[in-house]
Q: What sequence folds into this?
């Protein structure tokens, strides 16, 4: 790689001794050349740093023509636009949502091809203490095509909205914390002396319930009606207790976690949102990890 001289600050001609970034002025001397391309003679100078620049290094700017170094520096100095909750604005497609959906579908298909893969990553409290990775991997497994389609449809429906409101980092944090929070609730309500300790749970439902809780809270925070989402949450909570084979513990844990994460992200003072949001996600994650291992120490001291 070739090292090029960096652009001096506006109003200066390179170094403090009045040079031109290694190039001599064209008055009575050799013709000026582009610092990036010394074999190119150029009498056009950057409007910001006044160094010579060849056509390859010229960029249109708000004021005249500037060199590529000054344009890059100006972009770095510009304040990045943020969402109302402090995240970076998502321009274009909600790629984080699409990646999550694609990953869930791909893992489901892989499980159909290789059944042992499913057994290696399912979660049940009896093995969760020694193999904690299952607390997350089980969230990408599903018990059937309808289970997968329901969760992916819900993720497709509300994921893009939350990704645009929070930004990708905060959205992904919300998703995975809700998923993990659902698993923590499964351990909380399971007993080493009961069958619940050896029953496996799978699915992204905990994460989806967390997203439902978050979108309801965000809509209310923005002064919009959240009644349709609240009705959907209520119906699914009832179904979680009525329909056999559904982990109401995971659903409830994901919902509560999503509400807590959204509440913290939306209640942060504006001046703290940029850095306070990621920090809050980390703190909530550490609390969940502590609760996860704490439950195992209390319920099953030797895990």
A:
């Amino acid at each position: 790689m070739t090292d090029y001289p960096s652009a001096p600050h506006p109003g200066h001609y390179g170094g403090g001794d009045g040079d031109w970034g290694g190039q001599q002025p064209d008055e009575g001397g050799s013709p000026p050349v582009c610092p990036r391309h010394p074999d190119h003679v150029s009498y056009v100078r950057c409007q910001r740093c006044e160094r010579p620049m060849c056509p390859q290094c010229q960029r249109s700017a708000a004021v005249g023509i500037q060199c590529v170094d000054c344009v890059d520096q100006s972009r770095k100095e510009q304040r990045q636009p943020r969402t109302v909750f402090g995240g970076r604005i998502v321009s274009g497609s909600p790629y984080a949502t699409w990646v999550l959906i694609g990953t869930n579908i791909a893992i489901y298909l892989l499980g159909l091809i290789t059944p042992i893969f499913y057994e290696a990553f399912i979660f049940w409290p009896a093995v969760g203490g020694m193999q904690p990775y299952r607390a997350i991997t089980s969230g990408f497994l599903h018990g059937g095509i309808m289970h997968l389609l329901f969760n992916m449809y819900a993720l497709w429906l509300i994921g893009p909205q939350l990704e645009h409101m929070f930004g990708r980092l905060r959205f992904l944090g919300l998703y995975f914390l809700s998923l993990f929070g659902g698993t923590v609730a499964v351990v909380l309500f399971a007993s080493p002396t009961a069958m619940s300790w050896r029953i496996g749970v799978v699915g992204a439902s905990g994460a989806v319930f967390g997203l439902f809780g978050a979108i309801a809270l965000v809509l209310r925070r923005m002064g919009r009606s959240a009644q349709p989402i609240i009705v959907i949450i209520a119906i699914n909570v009832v179904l979680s207790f009525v329909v056999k084979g559904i982990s109401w513990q995971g659903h409830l844990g994901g919902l509560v976690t999503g509400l807590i994460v959204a509440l913290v992200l939306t209640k942060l003072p504006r001046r703290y949102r940029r850095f306070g949001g990621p920090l809050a996600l980390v703190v909530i994650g550490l609390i969940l990890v502590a609760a996860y291992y704490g439950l195992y120490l209390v319920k099953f001291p030797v895990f």
Residues 1-26 have pLDDT under 50 and may be disordered. The chain has two domains: 1-78, 95-299. The chain is about 55% helix and 0% strand. The beta strands are 58-60, 65-67.
